[in-house]
Design a protein that fits this description.
heterodimer; A: alpha/beta; 2 domains
Chain lengths: 290, 221
């Protein structure tokens, strides 16, 4: 192992040096466009929300926003290493820990939507119309109907695990009905559609893909957020600027400017109307409360 | 057909293809400029530790790309040793990862093709009064088919790679999105038709590049 490192190190240095002359490093010299790096969840990016609202901010700050769309767990990890300037995620507990660990000074509310339980149209576990996600999960488990889990430490995955733990169940790979995919929301929904499985999904991603999921129906959570009777299925999004005390390289001022803009009345109104025309309901409900 | 048209008329496609070629092209250039001389030297020279270097190069040929991606990620992260470069989630990071994947392929395959050239050729050239450099050049020319194959293999290996560039590039629209990561994205969104269309474009690119390299191989014959 040691020897291999010794051999490879000069090669790496050579490669790094060669690349340095081949391309420009990221920190832009003065006069060039500033870049704000946003680590966020796949739901905000895949739903098209960011594409719809970010150009306004980019025009205003004269900067560019680079969006890295991953699961909440990975987005927070990117922030915790100082590799992003700002994170926009949805896993309250993990966000509070992020602040408690000092990676951010403060968390700000941005918006929320809700989770739903989707499953095969013929409803093999007979959960359609149940009010509580907990009861639906129990019914799925008891009927041994297939359940597809994100299994990727995303916000949706941690919500799912919290519902299982409220039943005192720890799902494992040994349970033949439980599939831990380790994939994004889109892949999980496609899997559920193909394999007649149930899944916990954020409503926004489901709505934006529902025309490609012919075998799935919303079984718990109703037709819109107002019909969702289980408050535990609420899905709040928070935004945090990465703490410059811990990570001197981050663009804190630009990140705070972004947060100010994201929580402003004007942007909040835009968030609240996004998707309303296309899906008959907004995909996200603003709640910055300013 | 309609989806291929949709993909071809997508304004983002030009950017994606251009970045794919820029990243893979740069990585391939660096790997060729460093890998061919190293491979030739390993194939021709006899020195202490040669078998160790050879074993390392061969191991490198089988490096799992996603592990290379993780390795580069940790090196280039702001919390890592090269963090001050600010390269993570930029094309530079993708070039570094692809170069590390391509370099052992170029070096290893060059080495084996050079080593398989008849040793008598070198002795003959020496007898004719050639210098060491001239004789090495002659052997390398003799092995050019294998050397071209080395570059072609490395090209195919990196342009079709997805795990490492996804990790270190972040698949940022307009910045670090290449064909493979775009295919993953569209698949994730359930847009299989568009993903497939991009796949056809990727295969077409690979075919065109290989045809070009093979032409070059034929011309030097």
């Amino acid at each position: 192992m040691h020897v291999r490192h010794i051999v490879r190190l000069p090669i790496l240095v050579l490669v790094l040096a060669a690349c340095a002359s081949a391309t420009q490093p990221a920190p832009a010299p003065p006069g060039e466009t500033q870049v704000l790096r946003l680590a966020t969840t796949t739901s905000t990016a895949d739903s098209g929300l960011l594409d719809a609202i970010l150009p306004v901010f980019e025009a205003r700050c004269g900067c560019r926003v680079d969006v890295v769309a991953v699961g909440t767990g990975q987005a927070l990890e990117i922030g915790a290493k100082g590799d992003a300037d700002v994170v926009l995620v949805h896993s309250r507990q993990a966000e509070d820990k992020f602040v408690a660990d000092g990676h951010a000074r403060e968390r700000f509310d941005v918006m929320h939507n809700d989770f739903i339980i989707v499953g095969p149209r013929d409803d093999p576990a007979q959960i359609a119309g149940l009010a509580a996600a907990k009861d639906a999960f129990e019914a799925i488990m008891n009927s041994q109907a297939l359940f597809a889990s994100r299994g990727d430490k995303s916000g949706t995955h941690s919500k799912e695990l919290s519902i299982w733990s409220s039943l005192n169940v720890t799902p494992t790979a040994e349970m033949p009905w439980y599939r831990s995919l380790g994939q994004g929301m889109g892949e999980t929904l496609v899997f559920a559609d193909q394999q007649s499985a149930h899944a916990l999904a954020d409503r926004g991603t489901y709505l934006s893909m529902s025309d490609r999921l012919p075998n799935l129906a919303v079984l718990v959570g109703g037709a819109n957020l107002g019909e969702n009777k289980d408050k535990a299925l609420l899905n709040p999004y928070g935004v945090m600027a990465v703490n410059p005390d811990l990570h001197p390289g981050v663009r804190f001022d630009l990140a705070m400017q972004f947060i100010d803009w994201l929580t402003s009345l004007e942007t909040q109104a835009k968030i609240g109307s996004y998707g309303a025309n296309k899906y008959g309901q907004p995909l996200f409900y603003p709640n910055a409360g300013r | 057909m309609g989806d291929i048209l949709r993909a071809l008329t997508d304004p983002a496609l030009g950017e994606i293809v251009a970045l794919t070629l820029r990243v893979t092209g740069t990585a391939l250039l660096i790997s060729t400029l460093t890998g061919v001389p190293l491979g030739a030297a390993l194939g021709l020279a006899r020195f202490r530790g040669r078998s160790l270097v050879t074993a390392t190069v061969y191991t490198g040929m089988g490096l799992p790309p996603v592990v290379v991606g993780l390795f580069v990620y940790l090196l280039l992260s702001r919390s890592g040793p090269f963090g001050s470069l600010g390269w993570l989630f930029t094309p530079s990071a993708m070039i570094v990862a692809q170069t590390i994947i391509a370099f052992p392929l170029v070096a290893g395959l060059t080495m084996s093709s050079v080593a398989s050239v008849d040793p008598a050729l070198r002795q003959q050239v020496f007898a004719l009064g050639a210098t060491r450099w001239q004789s090495s050049w002659t052997v390398l020319r003799e092995a050019r088919i294998g050397v071209t194959a080395a570059v072609v293999a490395a090209f195919g290996g990196v342009i079709s790679e997805v795990g490492a560039v996804m990790l270190v590039g972040g698949n940022i629209a307009g910045q670090t999105r290449v064909l493979t990561t775009a295919i993953v994205l569209y698949t994730r969104q359930g847009d299989f038709a568009l993903a497939m269309a991009l796949g056809v474009i990727l295969i077409g690119l690979a075919f065109a590049a290989n045809a070009l390299l093979l032409r070059f191989q034929g011309r030097t014959r």
